[in-house]
Specification:
This protein is α+β, with helices and mostly antiparallel strands and about 450 residues long. It folds into 2 domains: about 190 residues, no CATH class; about 160 residues, no CATH class.
Length: about 450
């Protein structure tokens, strides 16, 4: 009897070991980031999210409080008073709440993950329109203090992912296209992957269409791309004229409450030595900030035409500390590849003469002849190596092939689970993007020759 018991225990142990060594399972729930799986270059992933009616009700109550509007309504709830925001017309004050959800992909399932809505203009407009294709974020160990089994829970090595619904982008590829171009040009930018997303809001599983899964800056991105362990990471809502704690949101190291690096940056940018001792000003600025990296960013951003960023709005960028130097990281790029945007905003001209001192990081740097020469050289390098019509048309052709089946198959995203009015909108948008890029290349080539 004793031998039989020992045999059963041994057998169960062997089976458990065999299960834990399954490569697909170990990768799915492992701690090592699997970039190739989470952000594939040549295919589309799928994800199913189980929210349920109770959690959807919680989300609605929270958003009604933040926006003073019910889902699908542009009319303010009578008597509702919104919480204090950041002053932006399209802002959703504060971060929406996390609710519990289950996520599945194939046979793998992650339970009790944190799900919350995210965004400003895209979230606000989508909420008012009653479109269920909402921008959201998933944190896989958000409730680990409540559920011990979810402690350090990971999705192929990633703790958190952001999902963008291509708001304002019927090509569904601008976010990925521009991040790829930034990295080619030597600017750190998040990895992006295409996902078909299905969500159960309590009325059964609904197809919410194609999303872009985007990695977070503070987790693996900086170290993966620079080889340097990341320090403080900030997501500012600031034009960097003065330091205001509420405008400089920390993404990590929150317990340390150390803002000395970003304070030093703002001090250096706005220092009077810029006028009376320019060499010293540049030395002090470069000691805390990767100026040439920022100039490369401007070269790419201005070339493609992206108005929804610093120079027009005070958000959509990160600052990440590597070995004591802050580096600029662009973010939220769905409204790129267009010169004009909402609220009469336009992308910056190539010489940026219209930029005033309210945007000191651009104005003061570009005013320096040496920095401006480097910027112009970076523009020329970018359009010569990466922004050629041939290279761009090949890229668009490849990614259209990945995306197109989602707009020609029997399962096509439709309102109210999509912004698309019809599948033909995708083809037209891609065609318009190709035309825009070809015209933009000609215009920028003329600037680079001057």
């Amino acid at each position: 009897m004793r031998l039989a018991t020992i045999f059963v225990v041994f057998l169960l142990f062997a089976l458990a070991c065999e299960k834990n060594t399954d490569p697909s399972v170990s990768k799915a729930f492992g701690k090592i980031p699997d970039y190739d799986w989470v952000f594939p270059e040549a295919e589309m992933r799928s994800m199913v999210i189980q929210l349920g009616q109770t959690n959807w009700d919680k989300i609605q109550r929270d958003m009604e409080y933040r926006t003073t509007r019910k889902f699908g309504s542009a009319t303010t709830i009578p008597g509702a008073v919104p919480p204090a925001g950041n002053g932006s017309l399209d802002a959703v004050p504060g971060d929406p709440i996390y609710v519990e959800a289950d996520v599945s992909q194939g046979s793998n399932k992650w339970q009790k993950v944190g799900f919350r809505l995210k965004g400003n203009a895209s979230l606000n407009a989508t909420w008012r329109s009653g479109v269920y294709k909402l921008p959201f974020k998933i944190q896989f160990d958000e409730f680990e203090d409540k559920y011990a089994e979810t402690k350090n829970q990971r999705f192929y090595g990633f703790k958190e992912l952001s999902f963008a619904p291509s708001y304002g982008d019927n090509t569904f590829m601008k976010e990925k296209l521009l991040t790829d171009l930034f990295r080619k040009a030597g600017v750190m930018a998040c990895k992006v992957g295409y996902y078909k997303v299905y969500i159960d809001f309590g009325q059964g599983q609904k197809y919410c269409g194609v999303y872009q899964a985007i990695e977070t800056v503070e987790e693996h991105m900086v170290e993966n791309q620079s080889g340097i362990k990341v320090g403080n990471v900030y997501k500012p809502e600031s034009n960097l004229q003065t330091f205001i704690t509420a405008q400089i949101e920390k993404q990590n190291n929150k317990d340390l409450n150390d803002y000395s690096d970003v304070k030093a940056l703002i001090t250096a940018i706005n220092s009077p030595t810029r006028v009376n001792d320019r060499p010293l000003w540049k030395k002090e600025l470069e000691a805390i900030f990767d100026v040439k990296g920022f100039l490369k960013y401007l070269a790419v951003n201005n070339t493609v035409g992206n108005w929804d960023t610093y120079g027009q709005v005070m958000h959509n960028y990160f600052l990440a500390n590597t070995n004591g130097v802050l580096r600029w990281i662009p973010y939220d790029l769905n409204l790129s590849f267009q010169m004009k945007g909402g609220l009469n905003r336009t992308a910056l001209t190539m010489d940026m003469k219209e930029v005033g001192s309210q945007w000191p990081l651009i104005r003061y740097i570009i005013d320096d002849p040496e920095y401006y020469a480097f910027y112009k050289s970076a523009v020329k390098d970018f359009i010569t190596k990466y922004f050629t019509p041939t290279a761009m048309n090949e890229y668009i052709k490849k990614h259209k092939a990945i995306l197109a089946p989602s707009f020609t198959a029997s399962e096509i995203e439709k309102p109210p689970y999509s912004y698309l009015q019809n599948p033909q909108s995708f083809d037209q948008a891609v065609s318009d993007l190709e035309k825009y890029i070809n015209e933009r290349y000609v215009a920028i080539s003329a600037f680079a020759k001057d």
